[in-house]
Amino acid sequence: MNNPSPKNEHSLTLETSVSKAFLAQALGISFDRDYYFDPFLRRQIDARCHHYAAEQLKDLDAFYTESNLGRKTCFTPNQVLVGGIQPNLILGMLLGAQFIPAKQGDADISPACWAGHAPQDLPHPRTLLEHPVILLFDSHIRAVQQEKGLQAIPPFFWDASGRAAIHGALTTAQKFLGENVFMDLLEEPDRVRQTMDWIVDANIVLVRHFAALCGIKIQCLHVGECSSCMVGPSEWSNFVAPTLERLGRELGPVRLHSCGPSGHLLAAARKIAAIASLDLGGETPLAPVRELFGLDFPVSIAPPVKLLAGGSLEALMAWTSDVLSANQGGELVLLYHLEPQYSLPVLRSWRATLTDKYGFC
Q1: Is 180 left (phi over 0), alpha (psi -120 to 50) or beta?
Q2: Of 4, 50, 207, 331, which one has the greatest count of Cβ atoms within 10 A?
């Protein structure tokens, strides 16, 4: 008689995504400008990346996508990413920032593209739809739609599930205004608030536009608000919370992402009805999350980078045991984004150990 599989009492899953930097080394791929602005070339390169992950990283059940964004369960081989660029980079380009591809990793834009400019000089959000970059993406979407059997996945989306993705208003404001934005929250709060309000308006216009163009019904919204962990609860409540509340009303339930230590913001976040799930970094304690949000609330959490890059299996399992204890059996996803400096033997052993112990893989 076969032994029964271990019981997964923790409602636990493990997700592995693969970074551009890892695949650049593994396959010799160059993620240059053409990769981002030629959807058919991108489809060919993405197919190579997906094949490598499926064959060479099969034991990790790995999937090639942007960190924390696309989902393997929502992927179809006929999808073509158009303008698959981090959301705040697209918005920055619309304000004049230079797009800077990194052939061996993630792209970026020239820094502080709106530093020194007044918020009242920002373009009306509706006029962004006439910007050459948006018109180019529109034409690419139509070109893909004309090819039989292909599905265009537009900017601000990473699969066909209907989950849109943007960067939070404060994180984007830091990108556009520079590090001084944190002092400006105290010294020029109205200027920062006006800029953040514009960022929200612009994201709403663009997400709705691309969803309509591709016939996507928006189901929910991933909001990457990493910079907000650098402010206190009062500033977060006054500046960040209203933007999340509005995004929730206008676009749908919010999956709030913060990779930095965010335990001090949990109580303020709990007051926002629009937040439907949390995507956290491993430095945020899970016990208060469960105390405030309950066991049925969906949470995903990534191990600290130091454990993934330089840790041992013992250290990673110790962190995992602490997390599962604090989780109290709640709905939980452990996830990480595979980078070149991470130890594959440790990650393989970690997954195998979790499989043996919880039987979820």
Answers
A1: alpha
A2: 207
Of residues 293, 211, 221, the one with CA closest to residue 254 = 221
Question: In terms of Cα–Cα distance, which of 225, 191, 207, 205 is closest to 68?
Answer: 225
Q: Dump pLDDT digits (tens) for 305-336.
A: 999 998 899 999 999 999 999 999 999 999 99
Within a domain: 80: yes
Q: Tokens 């529109």, residue?
A: 138
Amino acid at 53: A
Cβ atoms of 17 and 334 within 8 Å: the answer is no
State both tokens at 129. 């739809």
How many domains does the structure of the chain reveal? Answer: 1
Q: Which residues constitute the domain of residue 170?
A: 15-358
Which pTM does this prediction carry? 0.95
Find the CATH number of the domain harbouring 239: 3.20.20.210
Reduced to 3 states (helix: H, G, I; strand: E, B; else coil), residue 330 is coil
Instruction: Report pLDDT digits (tens) over 279-298.
Output: 999 999 999 999 999 999 99
Q: CA–CA separation, 189 vs 121, rounded Å?
A: 17
Q: Give CA–CA dist 319/282, Å, rounded.
A: 9
Specify the residue for token string 């920002």: 122
- For residues 356 and 8, the answer to whether their CB atoms sit within 8 Å is no
What CA–CA distance (Å, rounded) separates 308 from 350? Answer: 10
What is the chain's Cα-based Rg? Answer: 21
Residue 181 CA to residue 171 CA, distance in Å, equals 10
Which candidate, 291, 274, 279, 361, places its Cα nearest to that of 326?
291
Return the axis-axis angle of helices 189-213 and 132-145, rounded to nearest 10°. Answer: 20
Determine the average pLDDT of the residues in 218-242: 97
Is residue 5 situated within a structural domain? no
CA distance linking residue 185 with residue 197, whole number of Å: 14
Whether 4 is in a domain gets the answer no
Q: Say which residues have a Cβ less than 8 Å from residue 79's Cβ, sequence separation at least 6.
A: 150, 151, 152, 153, 159, 160
Domain membership flag for residue 7: no
